[in-house]
Amino acid sequence: MQKLIMLLMVFLLSGCATLSPDFEQPTVSVSSVRVLPTDGMVPEFEIGLRVLNPNRTPLSLLGLAYEVELEGHRVLTGVASELPTIAAYGEGDVLLRAMPDLVSSVRLFGKLLSQPQESVRYSFSARLDVGKFLPKIKIEEAGEISLAGDVTENVDK
Hints:
With about 160 residues, this protein is of the alpha+beta class. It has two helices and ten strands.
């Protein structure tokens, strides 16, 4: 019985060693947002993310969930599962495709038409799943988009 307990302890300790206490949280930033050509009336967007892996092991991205809000209205949400592996001490791009929530978008446009503004507040949040034994990576980025074309950014990660 003691040998079985010792064997179990060895497996548990070796499993804990793979959690890597020196794991650094990767940096993720929004690199682009563009409207894609579409045949329908609903626009489709492509959101580009840049992922930097400061660790000595590759970062296997299993999944991602995200949302975009404008003026507190959730206009884009989505998930992605076919994601690249980011090399050790490397960087990579992730492209997300998203379609707007029509009801929330109509509410937003109604608000903007009834209360004209010089800028619009935005927020982007995402959760990256990198495996069972590592915490999910949470990304939050917020700022203002000037309706004249300038973007002011406040990044909180």
